[in-house]
Amino acid sequence: MKPREIDNSIADLEKLLKLSITVVDRYGCFHNEKGDTILSHSLFHTHQNNEVCRLGFCHKCIEHCRHEMNAMGEKIKTSFVHTCWKGLSEIVIPLFDENIHFGSLFAGIWKNTEKTPVRSKILPAGFFRSREKLLPIETVNTGAMKNVLEIYARGLLALLTGKVPFCPADSKRSIIKNFLFKKASGKINLPELAEKLGLSVSRTSHLVKSLFGKSFQELLMEERIKRAKTLLKSTECTIREIAELAGFTDAYYFNRAFKKSCSVTPGRYRNKQNRL
């Protein structure tokens, strides 16, 4: 399925369920071989496609939805309803595959009549007018909504990660690609891959080189750079946050590795993409 077809399926589900859907690619995993996001519509990465979220959008919104809610989903591993600091409620569907957390699907949005936000300079008058137009969360059958969304999320994740197997699922090449794809944002090493393959470390190193023409570390760096590109283009995360999410030990090392690979710093790469 092409990126536009995935986008269209999300738009169709929004119309059918009369809600808005946001897909947060937590670690920049959903990219093609060039590092371009598979979700071609950049607004699917942010809640700003909702008018009520866009009004008064600030660092508190990013911290709450991108970080706090993803962290909660990663911990409890099941769908839940949450209400943000603006008094807005959504259903959150954590995106898991083989116990690997890729991000979250958010669906809503409704007002929580029991949590009315305090008027402040951060929230313009237009926000409160927009919020008043929303349905109260108490009137929504969130249980039925979660059932439908959970099934859709599983299918969507299968499509988004379907680019990984380039050959039969049980082949050594496919196992290596899947291993890197699912674990590149964390601490992984060659011995761990060797254990996965049931081979010695030296044999695994030779196998990786013969199959891909690159070392394990080169393949790992390649995947992490692609994730960084995706996050730079589709999120407002800081360079330091992107370094951590993409699997780098620190921002300094990330800057050096990115410039070596792309001939520009992460900051300049992001600025260039924003001008396109």
Describe the structure.
Helices cover 53% and strands 12% of the residues. It has a 4-stranded antiparallel beta sheet, sandwiched between helices. With 276 residues, it is of the alpha+beta class. The model is unreliable at 163-169 (pLDDT under 50). The protein has helices at residues 3-17, 51-54, 59-76, 125-132, 142-160, 172-183, 190-197, 201-212, 216-234, 239-246, 251-262, 266-275; strands spanning 20-25, 80-83, 88-97, 100-111. The two termini are 25 Å apart. It is globular, with a radius of gyration of 20 Å. It has 2 domains: 3-160, Beta-Lactamase; 172-275, Homeodomain-like (Arc Repressor Mutant, subunit A).
Set out the fold topology.
Layout: H1 3-17, E1 20-25, H2 51-54, H3 59-76, E2 80-83, E3 88-97, E4 100-111, H4 125-132, H5 142-160, H6 172-183, H7 190-197, H8 201-212, H9 216-234, H10 239-246, H11 251-262, H12 266-275
Antiparallel strand pairs: 1-4, 2-3, 3-4
* CATH domain fold name of the largest domain: Beta-Lactamase
Tell me the structural class.
alpha+beta
Shape field: globular
Outline the low-pLDDT stretches: 163-169
Report the count of strand segments: 4
Task: Give the amount of beta strand, in percent.
Answer: 5-15%
Straight-line N-to-C gap: 25 Å
Q: What is the CATH-assigned architecture of the largest domain?
A: 2-Layer Sandwich
Helix content: 40-55%
Give the total of domains: 2
Helical segment count: 12
Q: Give average pLDDT, whole number.
A: 87
Radius of gyration, CA atoms, in whole angstroms: 20 Å
